Amino acid sequence: MEAALPPFFVCGIENVAANGWLRYQSRIVLIAPRFLKSDAMPPALNHLSTILSDLLACEDVVKKAHAENYRFEERVGDERRRQYEAEHGPGGATHEEWLKSHEAYLWDAVYLDSPETPDTFLTINEAAQVDPAVWGPRGEKQELVRIEALDFALTHTTIGSVDRVQELLGIHNGDIQCDEVRQTEAKALLEKLCDSLNRNPNARRPRFAAFAEELSGDIGQTDWAERLRDRLGLAHLPPKEKFGPYPVALMRYTVEEVVKRAKKLDASIPLSVPTVLDSEPYEVFHPAPRQAPYGRTLNLAGDEADNDLISEVLHPRIDYRPKHLWKVGVIINRRDLSPERLAELRGNHISLLRRSTGRDDFGMV
Fold it and tell me: How confident is the model at residue 215, as a pLDDT?
């Protein structure tokens, strides 16, 4: 098998007996990837350079994390970095000015809806491309998963509650027999739910996703929603302004579906490694070394092992359908993200990144 793969791809997917496609493995090693050669990003503009230096020296953990992420980033190529800094550089030497200019960049180049294609999935982002062997013919049956908040969808449909969604999902899948609601009626209601998710104001953003197989142990647990919230670093769930059980859905779809969507958008990169230029500055996000084949989520529970860093990718948005609804549940508890805890989590995470990639120098500024 290895001889048929690109010479730099050592392992990462393996034959699955009987069904002929390749299954994702969490212990993936890439040797000297041709398209990942990129150094940590040195700021080119005076304002940005001043901002980063000031933030790296400050005691505010959140602001410092924003600066660290930009300086630690190794997956943004020179052309994309130059374009970002030249066309969307901050107008002043403050954190607020940087946030403002960064938001303008996102809406100009990343948060684009069809028929426009985000830079995330164009050749300008080649340095962050996931190995094509992963999304090629032998890897396209792999399943991706993503958590979606349901509060907006439940508010804008007549479904109303997670319990009702669970019932409709059971009827649609044939697991529940109900005289009052037929399968066709259940499907129609679930289609309305999916349509609401597709029209959500945030739906135009590139989508973060993980590999289902890598999270199978957590997905099978009764508290899967909070487990995945932690493993995927979704610190915004539940939102601070929300109280009580917070409704979420686990969406599941194949790499093949993502590739087909990318082709319709003329996107040359169906799957990419998340970078600091693909979303707002976020203290729970952490860039991965260029030796890592995927992004690595920061575990909010803080109990990761060396070989247990969850992989994450970005892909173009796809339109959800009822078949993509896997599970629904609620998140009740919030995670401690006090400055002290955040600093501890980020410190532990970068140590794991260094050990798992052999990069003792990663994150040195």
Answer: 97
